[in-house]
Amino acid sequence: MRKVIYALNISLDGCCDHTKQVGPEDDMLEYVTQLLREADLFVYGRKTYQLMVPYWPDVAKDQSASKGDRDFAQAFVSASKVVFSRSLDSAEVQKQDRNTRVVRANLRDEIRKLKQEPGKNILTGGVSIPSQLIELGLVDEFRFCISPVIAGAGRRLMEDVNLPEKLRLKLVDSKALPSGWVMLRYLKQ
């Protein structure tokens, strides 16, 4: 069965607003690019998808972009994507990224179906869809990339998650990068 992995960049004080983060360093991009390569399907909500596309597909074509940015972009572009949205137009999304489909179906049923399909890991990011997946008990692994900054403001990690009981996690890997980023990997117990 495929694993659903929730990966997100956050500040030291738990802010997950991308505008409050420090830019990714080469070592951080290398780490995250490897994570992307371990998955072949990305699951997003509309907001996160629109942050990623067309930005990363454009970077993949930009010969002046750094090697780290291009490698990340190519890993992103090569994977299939499922976007849960009631407002996105499927045809418009397909123009921007042929590997993307818009789904309006029940989130729980669709993710359960996707987990049963053959393939690599399923990677999700952002806040809304992952929060719902956590509440449904469908996230198997958590990857937090902690940036070396205190944001002081902005949306906080999992502030909208409502669990009936605590979710216990087990730390299985941690890595401090020379740039100051700390990468944490947790499994659901």
Characterise the protein shown here.
The protein is α/β, with parallel strands linked by helices. It has a single domain (4-188), classed as Dihydrofolate Reductase, subunit A (3-Layer(aba) Sandwich). The chain contains seven helices and eight strands. The chain has helices at residues 26-37, 46-52, 55-61, 67-78, 90-96, 107-116, 128-135, and strands at residues 4-11, 39-45, 80-84, 100-103, 121-124, 141-147, 169-176, 182-188. It has an eight-stranded mixed β-sheet with strand order 4-3-2-5-1-6-8-7. A hairpin with a 5-residue loop joins strand 7 (169-176) and strand 8. Helix 1 (26-37) runs parallel beside helix 4 (67-78) and helix 3 crosses helix 4 (67-78). The two termini are 17 Å apart. The model has no long low-confidence stretch (mean pLDDT 92).
Task: Please state the overall shape, judged from the principal axes of the Cα atoms.
Answer: globular
Question: What ranges have pLDDT less than 50 throughout 5 or more consecutive residues?
Answer: none
Broad CATH class: Alpha Beta
Q: What is the chains' assembly state?
A: single chain
Number of helices: 7
What class would the helix/strand composition place it in? alpha/beta
Order of helices and strands: EHEHHHEHEHEHEEE
Task: Report mean pLDDT, rounded to a whole number.
Answer: 92
Strand count, sense and barrel status of the largest sheet are: 8 strands, mixed
| Order of strands across the main sheet | 4-3-2-5-1-6-8-7
CATH topology: Dihydrofolate Reductase, subunit A
Helicity range? 25-40%
Radius of gyration: 16 Å
> How many strands in all?
8
Counted up, domains total: 1
